[in-house]
Amino acid sequence: MKDKMNHVEHRPDTLLRARVVADLLGTTEGRLANMRCAGVGPTFIKIGHSVRYRVSDIEAYLNANTIKPVTA
């Protein structure tokens, strides 16, 4: 995942298309659409009929969903 994010311009306000985000997250555009309808997943922006995601929102989503193992 981090390797894929390196290929994305790293300005936090850069807007990404759903297909790019789906590839970054290892899912499909359809699954992203389902997540939007269910009110889960990364924060997104609607511009007319188009959906866009900020790079900073994708990073925040990944950080919020990162689970660190408990060490014994």
The number of helical elements comes to 4
Give the tally of β-strands.
3
SSE succession: HEHHEEH
Which architecture does the CATH hierarchy give at level 2?
Answer: Orthogonal Bundle
Question: At the first level of CATH, what is the class?
Answer: Mainly Alpha
Q: Which secondary-structure class do the elements indicate? A: alpha+beta
Residue runs with pLDDT of under 50 for 5 or more positions: none
* Strand fraction: 15-25%
Domain count: the total is 1
Strand order of the largest sheet: 1-3-2
**CATH fold annotation:** Arc Repressor Mutant, subunit A
Helix content: 40-55%
Mean pLDDT rating: 90
Shape field: globular
- Span of the ends, CA to CA: 27 Å
Main sheet specs: 3 strands, antiparallel
- Give Rg in angstroms: 13 Å
How are the elements arranged and paired?
Layout: H1 2-6, E1 15-17, H2 18-25, H3 29-38, E2 45-47, E3 50-54, H4 55-64
Antiparallel strand pairs: 1-3, 2-3
Describe the fold and architecture.
By secondary structure, the protein is α+β, with helices and mostly antiparallel strands. The chain has one domain (2-64): Arc Repressor Mutant, subunit A (Orthogonal Bundle). 46% of the residues lie in helices and 15% in strands. It is built from 4 helices and 3 strands, in the order αβααββα. It has helices spanning 2-6, 18-25, 29-38, 55-64, and strands spanning 15-17, 45-47, 50-54. It has a 3-stranded antiparallel β-sheet with strand order 1-3-2. Strand 2 (45-47) and strand 3 (50-54) form a beta hairpin. The model has no long low-confidence stretch (mean pLDDT 90).
